[in-house]
Structures are given as C-alpha cells and as structure tokens.
Predict the structure.
Amino acid sequence: QVQLVESGGGLVQAGGSLRLSCAASGSIFSINAMGWYRQGPGKQRELVATISSGGGITNYADSVKGRFTISRDNAKKTVYLQMNSLKPEDTAVYYCNTAILRVYSYSWGQGTQVTVSS
C-alpha cells in the first residue's frame, strides 16, 4: 500500500512562493499519473494540477495556470508543486494523490497547510 507524505507548506505573503513535496512509498508509484489537490476553508477538495506517469504531460486548473508548476522525480518517488505569485485564495490544505481518483487512488496523506496573507 502506497503511503503519501506531503510537506513544504507554510505561511507566506501574497506574491510569494512555496514548493510542496509529496513523498510516496511503494513500488507502483511511477506507473500512476499524479495530482495535487487542495481544500480551502469551507470548500470542497479540488484538483489543481496533474502530471503523467513519465512527467511529460501536465495540466492545471485555470485558477493556478501560469503560477503553479507540477513535476515529479520517479527515482525519488516524489511529486512537487512549485507555487509562485501566491494569492490569499490559494490558502488551503494541499494533498497529493493519483490524478484520476475514480479509477484508482491511494490513501490520503495528512496534507500540508498553505496560508497566504494579504
């Protein structure tokens, strides 16, 4: 069973940057497209970025396009989310999981809190 551990969150001022990491255990990590999700206060969890198993194809929600970059290192079993030009509306707990949850998903990790102050 793959376990996911997210890290890298914190408190940052609007316009700042953070880099999130999601470390996975288990040998099947590299075969799955992965995604970063977030859940803001009082909101449903939403998908913000996905990356193919090999890393060559990425997709982003309109709300983060041009500001966030997803990447992965399969040798390290880690997915990253570089977040630039952060906005207060990016405040949320960020999680990683497979890109298509209805097909296959891992157990959710604890997430990492990102707070952007105005």
